[in-house]
Amino acid sequence: MKITDIEIHSISIPYVDWIAYSLNHYYGPSRRTIYVAHTDNGLVGLGESGAPEPREIIDQYLGSNPYTWIGDETSLGLGMAMYDLMGQAAGVPVYQLFGQQHRSWVPIGAWTVSTHPERMAEAVTRYAARGYTWMKYHLSPFENVFDQTEAMQKVAPPGFKIHYDFTGGGTDDHMPELLGKLSQYPIAGCFEDPIHEGDIQGSIELRQRIPLPIVRHRAPLEASYEVLMGAGDAYIRGHQKIGAIIRTAGLLAAGNIPFAIQNVGGTITRAMTVHMKAAFPTATLHSHSDAETWSHDVVAESLEPINGLVRVPEKPGLGLTLDREKLAYLKNIVLEP
């Protein structure tokens, strides 16, 4: 079995109407790259990334056997396509290529951006109705986090939680007090990177003082020694190559530490994340792919949560089917910045 061709499709994806105003002001229009890999025995594998890989990277995959890319260290997007092909060729779902299955339902969270309190409340209402139980957002100095939290708390169903992402923007002189006050709200769930990632000792001390989990995404030591030092209650690993996330998953499993894989994309990306999390022992923290923020996708399937959990696909490969009509439609959309 050899790779004979890799289609590269650049697409523009509109945001869902109700959240388009906030996301367009925060990010601007979104573009994605879809890879469609073909083999000489007729299999088709799907992958996805942000910007397209350089031609010299893509050429490395052409003519190769997909199994050459087990533990891929070259391209995350093309690695997805290779694993999709490997699973189809073996007749097994992708998670079986990573090890034994630890869970058949995987926790997934929703995403929004910091905006007016009434829009934050709307996001909670809409996502809760779709089956999400976690919502993450980056805090902004232009919005009052307590006004936002109170607005969200008023409309949140029991058990719905907010994942506050400080993006390393906090300072040690005010953070314990701020996190302590936020922790008093029932809707508050966890705090991601509340201080600069280099302050490992500060993160250890926050864990001792704050009742809710401290989640580390930015990790200057690549989630290695700081894990052993106890710097975080949980970890997020984002946009790592497949081989790198396999190694990190092993370390976190040895320490019995929860973690999430955060790779932004559509249903292809969400499917790959779900398969990996099914096989990694401590991948129990809710993940975010932002697939719920876009109005269209290129596959026929939709991996929607039930009570915050997505069912792991059991079909061979990623379990997805390319929809050529949807792909053509998204290729023809032009979104103005």
Any overview of this molecule?
The structure is a single chain. The chain has 337 residues and is of the alpha/beta class. It has eleven helices and twelve strands. It has helices at 17-26, 55-61, 76-90, 117-129, 145-155, 175-182, 200-209, 225-229, 242-254, 267-279, 324-331, and strands at residues 3-13, 30-39, 44-49, 105-107, 110-111, 134-138, 161-165, 188-192, 214-216, 234-238, 259-262, 309-311. The chain has a seven-stranded parallel sheet with strand order 5-6-7-8-9-10-11. A three-stranded antiparallel sheet has the order 1-2-3. The chain has a two-stranded antiparallel sheet with strand order 4-12. A hairpin with a 4-residue loop joins strand 2 and strand 3. Helix 4 (117-129) packs parallel to helix 5. 45% of the residues are buried.
Topology:
Layout: E1 3-13, H1 17-26, E2 30-39, E3 44-49, H2 55-61, H3 76-90, E4 105-107, E5 110-111, H4 117-129, E6 134-138, H5 145-155, E7 161-165, H6 175-182, E8 188-192, H7 200-209, E9 214-216, H8 225-229, E10 234-238, H9 242-254, E11 259-262, H10 267-279, E12 309-311, H11 324-331
Parallel strand pairs: 5-6, 6-7, 7-8, 8-9, 9-10, 10-11
Antiparallel strand pairs: 1-2, 2-3, 4-12
Helix pairs in contact: 4-5
List keywords for this structure.
globular, 337 residues, 7-stranded parallel sheet, alpha/beta, 3-stranded antiparallel sheet, 11 helices
Concise summary:
Helix content is 34%, strand content 18%.
